[in-house]
């Protein structure tokens, strides 16, 4: 199983990228969102990957984080959702958006993805809502595309590897830490995940303490 690819980009197409890893080229299919994040030909990139094996086809799919890879794997397990629809959902919402939509049972956000109808979107939420807390918790301090991958690539003085500028960090780590804190306070994973997802949606740049306070307000009994 190929779980991670790190190497130089040879070329970028509309929906896939060819990455050279020490002389071997790997064709990796990605969402539009991920393709936009990747650097240009000749530069270094790293992706977590999922290998899809069928009777007449083998395809490699790439993701910037383990959270996104896990959502792809889980989405593929939903009836009526294949690789194309899974990529469409992740491309439309991103990993954090998928986590938030499923935790909040917001199937209207899921059906925004191309090729996903209302019934399929509802099925996604119903089948995956209990898995959202565990996937959200995976986001704590995980590496992303912006991490240094040059050490995975053979360099020579004549052909130094180019580094991609660091991307703006997300609050995925803050969400997972807030989720853990609420769990320690005795809240059920599903209700904690929904509160954290709502708080993160309202304040995307919030740090961990801010998310915890906002989530606690949402979880407080009315009246």
UniProtKB/TrEMBL annotation:
GO CC aspect terms: cytoplasm; Holliday junction helicase complex; Holliday junction resolvase complex
Localization (cell): Cytoplasm
Domain Holliday junction DNA helicase RuvA C-terminal residues, every copy: 174-220
Pfam families: HHH_5, RuvA_C, RuvA_N
GO molecular function annotation: ATP binding; four-way junction DNA binding; four-way junction helicase activity; hydrolase activity
Annotated segments matching region Domain III: 170-223
Record domain DNA helicase Holliday junction RuvA type: where: 1-62
Keywords: ATP-binding, Cytoplasm, DNA damage, DNA recombination, DNA repair, DNA-binding, Helicase, Hydrolase, Nucleotide-binding
Region (Domain I): 1-64
Domain of life: Bacteria
One example of a Gene Ontology biological process annotation: DNA repair
Function as written in the Swiss-Prot or TrEMBL entry: The RuvA-RuvB-RuvC complex processes Holliday junction (HJ) DNA during genetic recombination and DNA repair, while the RuvA-RuvB complex plays an important role in the rescue of blocked DNA replication forks via replication fork reversal (RFR). RuvA specifically binds to HJ cruciform DNA, conferring on it an open structure. The RuvB hexamer acts as an ATP-dependent pump, pulling dsDNA into and through the RuvAB complex. HJ branch migration allows RuvC to scan DNA until it finds its consensus sequence, where it cleaves and resolves the cruciform DNA.
Complex formation: Homotetramer. Forms an RuvA(8)-RuvB(12)-Holliday junction (HJ) complex. HJ DNA is sandwiched between 2 RuvA tetramers; dsDNA enters through RuvA and exits via RuvB. An RuvB hexamer assembles on each DNA strand where it exits the tetramer. Each RuvB hexamer is contacted by two RuvA subunits (via domain III) on 2 adjacent RuvB subunits; this complex drives branch migration. In the full resolvosome a probable DNA-RuvA(4)-RuvB(12)-RuvC(2) complex forms which resolves the HJ.
Domain notes: Has three domains with a flexible linker between the domains II and III and assumes an 'L' shape. Domain III is highly mobile and contacts RuvB.
The family this protein is said to belong to: Belongs to the RuvA family.
Name recorded for this polypeptide: Holliday junction branch migration complex subunit RuvA
Source species: Pelagimonas phthalicica
């Amino acid at each position: 199983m190929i779980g991670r690819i790190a190497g130089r980009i040879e070329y970028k197409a509309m929906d896939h990228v060819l990455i050279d890893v020490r002389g071997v080229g790997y064709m990796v299919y990605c969402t539009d969102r991920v393709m936009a994040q990747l650097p240009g030909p000749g530069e270094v990139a790293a992706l977590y990957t999922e290998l899809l094996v069928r009777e007449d086809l083998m395809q490699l799919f790439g993701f910037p984080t383990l959270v996104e890879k896990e959502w792809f794997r889980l989405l593929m397990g939903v009836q009526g959702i294949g690789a194309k629809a899974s990529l469409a959902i992740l491309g439309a919402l991103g990993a954090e958006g998928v986590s938030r939509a499923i935790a909040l049972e917001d199937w209207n956000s899921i059906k925004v993805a191309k090729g996903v109808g209302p019934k399929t979107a509802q099925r996604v939420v119903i089948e995956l809502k209990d898995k959202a807390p565990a996937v959200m918790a995976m986001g704590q301090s995980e590496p992303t595309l912006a991490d240094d991958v040059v050490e995975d690539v053979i360099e020579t003085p004549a052909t130094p590897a180019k580094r991609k500028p660091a991307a703006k960090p997300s609050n995925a780590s803050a969400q997972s830490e807030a989720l853990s804190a609420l769990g320690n306070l005795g809240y059920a994973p599903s209700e904690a995940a929904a509160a954290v997802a709502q708080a993160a949606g309202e304040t995307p740049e919030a740090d961990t303490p801010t998310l915890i306070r906002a989530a606690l307000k949402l979880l407080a009994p009315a009246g």
